[in-house]
Design a protein that fits this description.
8 strands, about 20% helix
Length: about 250
């Protein structure tokens, strides 16, 4: 005689109801956590060493949406440099507070020897709520520009809540790389008492559109010899993950 098992309805997890009296950004934050997206992003950033090279480890609490035209930024994915040449669109629902956006290249100039990382690509401070147009631009946007044969570069994107208003600084124009090389996001977060709320990253490789970016900043486009041809033991990039390592390369 076969045994018949009955599952009590009380053991079936029902969706957690949201409190309708809570602010919209809290509701979205609960939904972000409920779907597991925050834990997936944290795992991915751990595996690709983003928390080591970009910002101290934390759990995202705001669902920031970043898109380049019709291309949405999916954490860990690869996006062509041609697509990311123009400033992205940022959407997020946050409290009535001030936020800062930072975007950098974690592997500049080469994934094999990132001697000048981080390269600051974009920085906007004093963003009120989720309205990017209210912020003070301190570093105008320059698209990712990985040199030829420099491997796949991780491009980090951080949204952080400010504890106070940041004084506007001299704007770094989009026509130069001066003031961008050697930027340290972790140091910037600590010095300005920022509270990280969202982190994303994507991967970028050289294509011919990168030459236009270097022409825009007034320098010749650097190029590297493929390390595989030099036999210098640099065939593998310094970022070594597990199952994600070659997923988007």
């Amino acid at each position: 005689m076969r045994a018949v098992f009955h599952i009590s309805r009380r053991f079936i997890a029902a969706p957690r109801p949201f409190k309708t009296s809570a602010p919209d950004w809290i509701l979205r934050g609960e939904q972000f956590h409920f779907t597991g997206a925050d834990r997936y992003i944290r795992k991915l950033c751990d595996d690709r060493l983003v928390f080591r090279d970009f910002v101290p480890r934390f759990t995202p609490i705001i669902d920031a949406r970043v898109s380049f035209g019709s291309t949405k930024l999916i954490c860990g994915s690869a996006i062509d440099a041609e697509i990311t040449a123009s400033q992205p669109d940022l959407k997020f629902h946050g409290p009535d507070a001030l936020f800062t956006v930072v975007m950098t290249d974690l592997d500049y100039p080469s994934n094999y020897r990132p001697a000048e990382s981080e390269l600051l690509l974009w920085k906007v401070c004093n963003i009120r709520g989720g309205d990017l147009s209210t912020g003070d631009v301190s570093c105008e946007y320059v698209g990712p520009c990985p040199p030829e044969n420099s491997g796949s570069h991780r491009i980090g994107f951080l949204l952080a809540r400010q504890t106070e208003k940041l004084e506007p600084t001299a704007v770094i124009p989009a026509t130069t790389l001066k003031g961008r090389k050697g930027f340290n996001t972790t140091q910037f977060v600590v010095e300005n008492k920022l509270v990280p709320t969202s982190v994303l990253f994507f991967q970028s490789k050289f294509d011919q559109s990168v030459n236009d970016i270097y022409a825009q900043v007034g320098v010749s486009s650097p190029s590297y010899i493929d390390p595989k041809k030099l036999n210098l033991g640099l065939e593998k990039p310094r970022v070594v993950g597990s199952r994600y390592r070659n997923q988007h390369l």
